[in-house]
Amino acid sequence: MPTTLSKVAWLHQKRLHHQSKYRLSIWLALSTTLVLLPLLGAQPGQAQSVAFEGCKVGTVPVATLEDPSLNDLAVAVRNPATGYPEIRYNRAVAANIRYRTRLFFYAHECAHHVLGHTVGRGRAYPRATEQEADCWAIRQLYGSYFNNADLRVLQQDLTRLGRASRTHFGGAQRARNLNTCLRRR
Prior knowledge:
This protein is α+β, with helices and mostly antiparallel strands. About 50% of the residues lie in helices and about 15% in strands.
């Protein structure tokens, strides 16, 4: 029977292997979603559904749908008819946001699904839940897909774009909180 130390080492190695496979798939999902999806040619007002391998809830891929009616970049929802997870985004809003920042926001919405946060459309998360999604997103991206310069760009964009609300910290606070998330990895 293996010793406790060897069990811990085996579990750690297994976790690292799983994380590296997961990080690769989320990178493929993020880059595919945010670079290619706007180029897929959906007609204005027409929803286009694409499922990406990188964002899954259990074994269920999360569909990404264009939704021009959103007053935000993206939102994590469950489809009311099917109950399946979706990330809805507004292409017009995305066009005004830098690439790395779009990656972060997609990962943030994916985090809501992965962490089991999803609420119905029109409802909101508490600030602590939004902060948890921010932490999950930056931890997935930093190191492998984001470097310090990318983090600074994201923090500048959060500061510029983010206004405080009952659900979100202000952009400057969210930007500072990313450093805390990374220190507590």
